[in-house]
Task: structure prediction
Amino acid sequence: MSSKKACFLDRDGVINEEVNYLYEPDKVAIISGVTEALKMLKRHGYLTVVVTNQAGVARGFYEEKDIHAVHARIEKLLDKDGVGIDAFYFCPHHPEFDTECECRKPNAGMLLQAAEKFDIDMNESFLVGDRISDINAARNAGCAEAYLVRTGHGTNEIENKDVSGIEIVDDLLHAVRTFID
Ligand SMILES: [Mg+2]
Ligand SMILES: [Zn+2]
Result:
């Protein structure tokens, strides 16, 4: 059996509008173009894998069950449009509040876990994120490409940090079109 290709997706600011420490399902708003992007990924045989840092757990702002509720809401909203996410991975840790871990981006842990479980070929896979730490997670995991979007924290990252050498696109849909075409 040949290995699969994947699109790794940051969650907040890429799929749903950035809300600081989002944990309430009714505050989920899907960013425009996401449905079309997910359809295009499916059509081209890409697994869609969310990889999201959720340090709000380590900070005591919310619990893991809240993360699951947000993911259920995202799936419900996407399902209405006939699309979905193949897997959700989250890191609940923060080094200052609980423990160092392998999963918190820019570490590659979540991507590598998914690669192992789904037999993903990193050379055929890419990531879309709104923070430089997302891009570095993709690089640490050996992804073929990583795109920094202008949605979510993206614009702020682009204006205030060194983004030389990073591919910048407007949003998820543009990232998908750029990689696939
Ligand atoms: Mg984000
Ligand atoms: Zn972690």
DSSP finds six helices and six strands in the chain. Residues 91, 93, 101, 103-104 surround zinc ion (ligand 2) (CB under 6 Å). The longest strand covers residues 46-53.
